[in-house]
Amino acid sequence: MRGDMVIGLVHNRPVDAEDTNHQSSKDVIVQVEAIEKALDTLGQRSVRLPFSRDLGDVLRALETSRVEAVFNLCESVDDNPHLIAHPAAVFELLDIPFTGSSAATLLTTTDKYLVKRLLQAGGIITPAFFLYSGQKQFDVSGLRFPLIVKPQFQDASIGIDQESVVVDGARLPDVLEEMYDLYGPLLVEEYIEGREFNISLFGSPEAEVMPVAEIDFTGYPDELFRIVGYRAKWDAGSVEYSCSNRMFPNLSEDLLGQLVPTARRCYALFGLRDYGRVDFRMGPDNAAYVLEINANPCLSPDSGFVAAVGRSGLDYTGMVGRFQDFLSRRYR
Ligand SMILES: Nc1ncnc2c1ncn2[C@@H]1O[C@H](COP(=O)(O)OP(=O)(O)O)[C@@H](O)[C@H]1O
Ligand SMILES: [Mg+2]
Questions:
Q1: Which atom of ligand 1 is the closest one to the Cα of 227?
Q2: If I label 50, which of 61, 74, 79, 276 is the partner at 20 to 30 A Cα–Cα?
Q3: 154 contact partners, CB below 8 Å, separation of at least 6
């Protein structure tokens, strides 16, 4: 059965080269190319299929190419992060098996504020926060500075850099106003100074925890906040980029005992499927704070998820083969 079906590599169209977020946006094509190559090596037929709001085109392309299962690589539709879940919803409507999380999970996890509310309700430790939606009056007396300001609906560190960390109340209103104009509603949360860890989970129906990665901030200039902001992720020439490398350290049982069960709980709480990544920071109080839940994390060969899978002993083609297995099982 494996290899018989036609897999559609469905992806969003990257934004134009002159757009500010071109770097992060074009990364989806890197993923498509790498997965296509791996599927080819596996003897698996596949076809590329860009997804846009022109649903008629999408449906025709699915039909013409006789797509029977979908590798869902959509991170948005026409660069609108509010539409991240909609391609998955279309596959659900058409009853086409697809990789990764359901539309409901993608929709929930892309809303940073909703994620915080659910983490809180689930009793999972996460930095204290509030939502800024343009209101004139807001009360930050319950929060400890510095604070970090992030767009409610963005990913890939879009809108996050040094200017996002605010050390005192005086600058806060200006930062909020400026960022609100650019990105709409903002999640404002306590900045956690401490080690940053990424925990990748992979497998279906049971997900296994991959080796735990830590961001190595060695050499990061003292005057800068140690964050994996947009420059650190995408600007290869920046100091932030070269001083935020991934490593796989040996961690104490104690630390793993804090991180791993919490990552598993998050995976279950948000209903992630096939793969996911949970990001943490260790606070000065030695508590493990959940920063973010990534359903369908990036699968480019240099991504954190792929590195963790590689560290577990599975190469890129082997990893893609596992996804192919997930689809085969759903297809039958
Ligand atoms: N509360 C926080 N305390 C310290 N650093 C943070 C906090 N929130 C985010 N960061 C830094 O910003 C990076 C990106 O934030 P994240 O919430 O993961 O957004 P994105 O979805 O854009 O990746 C994190 O990897 C981390 O380095
Ligand atoms: Mg992140």
A1: 27
A2: 276
A3: 81, 183
Q: What is the pLDDT of residue 143?
A: 95
Residues with CB under 6 A from ligand 1: 127, 148, 150, 154-157, 160, 189-192, 196, 227-229, 279, 281, 291-292
Cα-to-centroid distance, 173 and ligand 1 (Å) = 20
pLDDT at 138: 86
Least confident of 198-212, 236-250, 289-303: 236-250
Phi, psi of 190 (to 5 degrees): -65, 135
Q: Which atom of ligand 1 is nearest to the CA of 159?
A: 22
Distance CA 8, CA 293 (A): 26
- Across all residues in the chain, what is the average pLDDT? 93
pTM: 0.94
Distance 291 CA to ligand 1 centre (A): 6
> Distance, CA 156 to ligand 1 centroid (Å)?
10
Could you give the domains of the chain? 7-99+316-331 (3.40.50), 128-190 (3.30.1490.20), 193-311 (3.30.470.20)
Residues 158/229, Cβ–Cβ less than 8 Å: no
- How many other C-beta atoms lie within 10 A of the C-beta of residue 286? 10
